[in-house]
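Thread: Newbie trying to understand structure tokens

Hi all, I'm a second-year student working on a class project, and my supervisor (Dr. K.) asked me to get a predicted structure for one chain before our next meeting. I've only ever worked with sequences, so writing a 3D structure as a token string is new to me. If someone could post the tokens and maybe explain what I'm looking at, I'd be very grateful. Here's the chain:
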Amino acid sequence: MPSLSSAIKINIRDATAAIPGPAYGKPIVIGEDPNKLDLFNQVKNYYSQSDVENDFGADSPIAKATAKAFMQGISEIKVVNVMKDDGAGNAVADYDTVLADLAERAEYDIIIPTIGAGDTNTQKLVDHAGVYNKLLILPFIGSVADAQTTFAALTANEFVYAIAYDALTEGEVAGAVGGVVATLKPWQTPEWVVVQGVNPASYKDSEVDQLETNNIATITEVAKAVLSNARTLDGGRVYISRSKIYLAEVIKTELVNLKLKLNNMGKAIPFTPSGLQVVKSTIEKVLRVQQSLGVLKPDWTDADGNLHRGFEVTVPAYEDISDADKANGVLKNVSVTAYLMNYVEKIELDLVITL
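---
Reply by user tm_fold:
Sure, no problem. This is what the structure looks like when written as tokens:
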């Protein structure tokens, strides 16, 4: 199980309105355009490449990234420019300001940068992805040896999808791959999915093997140009990372809406043994729905007649919860184990729920 320090926190106490289910496949280009300083830190939605080019121009690094993303069949993309005037007429990148509250200002789950793994600001994007559970498509343009060295220098996490390539710009590669991922459900693997508008890298087969050994993907040829693997830079799987957050979000949605429904009846989810069971049964209801949707495996019986469930949910015993957590309405160590329909892997969540 994940450690408590990496637990996913769900706060339903402050909810004031019903929330829709999680929306996935929402990419954002976090890019550098020194010629559009007036658009610094403005998050904008775009529904066509022509709209992007009207604001940034066709030669903008941002427009080049969105062009490749739209080629994959997405219908919408967000953009934010990190370049600003430093007060002396110079264009400088200010990732700190843009990233500080970006997750509160915009809805996105896939980050497409216009910089590569070797940029001095890249670690800020990596850290942001890890803290806010956003998938970062991180490109590197160059040789296999240099890609391995550059990616190894980063402090990675399970939300970094490393892509090595030997042509185009960083933003174009990230845009193409990010667009591919955005067309997939969180539980679908991008491995061997076709990338439109991009040729296979010219790396040798042995070099592709080296990249995969180091958890780095590339665009290779299997009848068409496809993504070579679906591993994150820390050795996990892209669809596992995305599915974990998806499941946490649908659980949060159901708990928030339950809280509001009870509030309208003058009731609440009590922090009592019975209240803990309400939380447990609500989570189980969510996961049953995910089974019916084909996300999670149905319960099954093995050859010996033993029943195996497609998921398991455990909540702590009331007497094992500290007095401080009871007073603050904080329910820790809510554990979820769920098995994806088409894979051997299981998803493990460690939730901290504030009632």
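A couple of things are worth pointing out once you decode it. Residues 238-264 form the longest helix (27 residues). The two ends are 23 Å apart (CA to CA). Feel free to ask follow-ups in this thread.
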